[in-house]
Amino acid sequence: MDRKLAFWVFFAAVVFIFSACSKKTEGDLKSMEQIHQEEGIPVVLREMRPAVFTTFLKYPASFMARSESTAKADLSDVVRVVHVKLGDTVHKDDVIITFSLDNPSYQQAKASYENAEATYKRTQSLFSSNGVSRQNLDNAKTQYELARANFKAMDDAINVKAPIGGVITRLDVRATENVQSGTVLFTVSNLDRIEARIWVSARDIGFIRDGMPVMTQWLDRTISGEVIQVNMIMDAEKKAFLVLAEFRNTERLLTSGMSLDATLQTYKNDTALYIHRKELVTEDGVPCVYISLNDKAQRREVTIGRSQGLLLEITQGIAPGDFLISEGSQLVQDGSRVYSVAPTSGSTPMN
Questions:
Q1: Which of 321, 323, 327, 277 is nearest to 298 (CA)?
Q2: What is the pLDDT of residue 253?
Q3: HSE on the CB side for 70, CA within 13 Å?
Q4: Which tens digit of pLDDT belongs to each residue from 215-268?
Q5: Low-confidence residues of the chain, pLDDT below 70?
Q6: Which residues contact 144 (CB under 8 A, 6 or more apart)?
Q7: Of 188, 195, 344, 350, which one's alpha carbon is 20 to 30 angstroms from that of 162?
Q8: Looking at the structure, do residues 18 and 44 belong to the same domain, yes or no?
Q9: For residues 125 and 62, what is the distance between their CA atoms, to the nearest angstrom?
Q10: In whole angstroms, what is the distance from residue 195 CA to residue 244 CA?
Q11: What is the pLDDT of residues 16-61, one digit of tens each?
């Protein structure tokens, strides 16, 4: 039979007997007390064993690639070619979008560059044969470099390149689409590392430190990361503190734009002794527990450390190997005779 069920069946029987005896004489009641003194009070015991105890905070977080860049159109024109599709991996300076090569500004910049290049080469040849002065050569070189820079700028506007290496995570235009200057064209994200932005309340910010473990879940998978920045100034609008965490995203489970919960592990004790809140007894404002020693209840004052949900870490008052009265502690007093109605179990697992 289940330990808890056995205890409560026994307890119900005790209550029934006590109720039946309430109509009897005071002598009969004393006989009931004598039975308890002789046979003991039924309890459930739990052996205290060191176990892992952790505390954590959970907050919603927005996820973005640690390295991400968005390209915009530098001119108003028609998109001729889109060289990629969403999800493609690209390298820095790969051509992603090509506008029309018939653009008048592009053709003018190209012609000016070619003319300046020819003039510069011709002036170099004349200078080597003392046909022109150094001043003429310098002027030709300046005009050539200026025309080259202008043409490169126009070429970059016509052949839009990836500003960084990564994955195409956003593609906003299609071939034959007419776009205006300033229009967003595409976004490249380096998804190897993902950054989570977490807004933490003033009540909790004091528990968070750089390097603290962080976890999130996606598709039944747990992805681990760590805190990399804790802002110590509250954001005036959000009334919260910004915490940044970084996740290694080698399996590409996370991507930019996700909104998931982030769990920050604020404390860990690998050899903790802890109890359930219902196992704690407060007497005269003092937290205590009862253990079973030589079949008698013994009151122990305890010091509570961290808490997580209904679990309490005990830092003083009990030791490994003690048999905690897990159920029935409200029925006993210091020195009460007790006996276990179920086999002794170990520490309560963390949830």
A1: 323
A2: 92
A3: 12
A4: 999 988 999 999 999 999 999 999 999 999 999 998 889 988 899 999 999 999
A5: 1-38, 343-351
A6: 116, 117, 119, 120
A7: 195
A8: yes
A9: 62
A10: 7
A11: 444 544 444 444 455 556 655 667 889 999 999 999 999 999 999 9
d(CA 288, CA 213): 33
Rounded distance, CA 188 to CA 66, Å?
Answer: 11
Residues 6+ apart with CB under 8 A from 317: 288, 289, 300, 301, 302, 303
User: Which tokens belong to 268?
Assistant: 């860990």
Instruction: State the pairing for strand pair 311-316/303-308.
Output: antiparallel
Give the pLDDT confidence score for residue 331 in this predicted structure.
Answer: 87
Can you count the helices (H) and strands (E) in the chain?
A: 4, 20
Q: Are 259 and 293 in contact (CB under 8 A)?
A: no
Q: Are residues 206 and 178 in the same domain?
A: no
Regarding pTM above 0.70, the answer is: no
Q: Domain limits at 217? A: 56-65+191-268
Q: Which of 160, 182, 204 is the last residue of a domain?
A: 182
Place of tokens 């949830």: 351
Q: Which H or E run contains 39?
A: helix 26-39
Q: Which of 30, 81, 42, 1 is nearest to 332 (CA)?
A: 42
Instruction: Give 124-168 as a DSSP string.
Output: HHHHHTTSS-HHHHHHHHHHHHHHHHHHHHHHHHHEEE-SSSEEE
> Residue 7 in 3-state DSSP?
helix
pLDDT of 343 reads 60
Pair 146, 116: CB distance under 8 Å: yes
Mapped onto helix, strand or coil, the DSSP state of residue 243 is strand
CB burial class (10 A; 0-12, 13-18, 19+) of residue 41?
A: buried
Residue 347 forms part of a structural domain? no
Mean pLDDT of the chain, nearest integer: 88
Give the contacts of 272 (CB within 8 A, at least 6 positions apart). Answer: 50, 51, 52, 53, 305, 313, 314
Are 252 and 278 in the same domain?
no
d(CA 107, CA 24): 113
